[in-house]
Design goal:
The protein is α+β, with helices and mostly antiparallel strands and about 270 residues long. Helices cover about 25% and strands about 15% of the residues. It has 7 helices and 6 strands; from the N terminus they run H-H-H-E-E-E-H-E-H-H-E-H-E. Strands 3-2-1-4-6-5 form a 6-stranded antiparallel beta sheet, with helices on both faces. Strand 2 and strand 3 form a beta hairpin. Helix 4 runs antiparallel to helix 7 and helix 5 packs across helix 6. The chain is globular. The termini are far apart. GO terms for molecular function: oxidoreductase activity. This is SagB/ThcOx family dehydrogenase. It holds the Pfam family Nitroreductase. InterPro entries: Bacteriocin_Proc_Enz (IPR052544), Nitroreductase (IPR029479), Nitroreductase-like (IPR000415).
């Protein structure tokens, strides 16, 4: 076989491990739908308590001052310091060449090798990256289909078929309460779970999540060099997002969405 079909991994995977991992992952899923908008809530924590619990640091000895200061060597405007998350995106689309540069740190660096620009347990690389245009009229996008699948080793984009209509995708990722404006691009990090469970079993789920974190931080830093703004997003329902891409939700776990675009500057 020139290319291994994705379901080939099922031959080597323990079905019990898979079923239990799917069940565990589902426990962290949201159900976001207009029909339930007035009957569900995330928590019942007061604003006062939430303010105290947000953004603080965890001290092992809160009643003892056994600290000493750090001499910071890295300036906030350094290339290795990410920008703050974007509050509101503008309606401007971004040029596609900037999208290509954005994902370039994820590609294989050597023509004769398979190692990519981020760590992966056992070099299995179970995380699949989907780059999605959220613009109805995007003259910068290279094809009518709105979703592209990154092939890091081939250094190509695979066009996801049947994704010409952006409305299902926008509804899947932007239906949560609150407004963040109009991000131009959504990058979806989805774990193809058989690719990591067949070798590492339950531990593979943890390794896959670690890999997602490595990838999105690279994207954050690259976005900063390109003058783009970012925001990580988890307010979506897995099954709705999987359906919008055309993925089997028992095999592909969308772990998070990464919005990319230009900052909206209030007048």
């Amino acid at each position: 076989m020139k290319y291994i079909p994705h379901d080939y991994y099922l031959k080597f995977m323990d079905s019990k491990v898979h079923a239990e991992t799917v069940d565990f992952h589902a426990r962290g899923n949201y159900t976001i739908h207009d029909a339930f908008a007035h009957t569900t809530r995330l928590h019942s924590i007061s604003d006062k308590d939430l303010s105290q619990l947000t953004g603080n640091e965890l001290r092992l000895y809160p009643d003892m001052d056994i600290t000493f200061p750090i001499d910071p060597k890295v300036k906030p405007n350094s290339a290795i310091c990410r920008d703050e998350s974007c509050g509101t995106f503008s309606k401007e689309s971004i040029e596609f060449f900037r999208v290509e540069k954005l994902v370039s740190p994820l590609l294989c660096s050597r023509e004769d090798g398979y190692k990519r620009g981020y760590p992966s347990g056992g070099a299995l690389y179970p995380v699949e990256v989907f780059i999605c245009s959220l613009m109805d009229e995007d003259k910068n996008w290279p094809c009518p289909e709105k979703i592209l699948h990154l092939l890091p080793h081939s250094k190509k984009f695979e066009i996801v078929q049947g994704t010409q209509d952006v409305e299902d995708l926008k509804k899947a990722v932007l239906s949560a309460p609150g407004s963040i404006g109009s991000p131009s691009v959504a990058i979806i990090y989805a774990v193809y779970i058989p690719k990591t469970l067949f070798k590492y079993r339950y531990r593979g789920y943890r390794l896959a999540l670690m890999e997602v974190g490595s990838i999105y931080m690279l994207i954050e830093l690259q976005a900063k060099t390109l003058g783009l703004r970012c925001r990580l997003w988890s307010a979506y329902t897995d099954t709705m997002l999987s359906k919008a891409i055309g993925l089997n939700p028992t095999l592909f776990f969308p772990v998070c969405v990464h919005f990319i675009g230009e900052q909206h500057d209030p007048i």
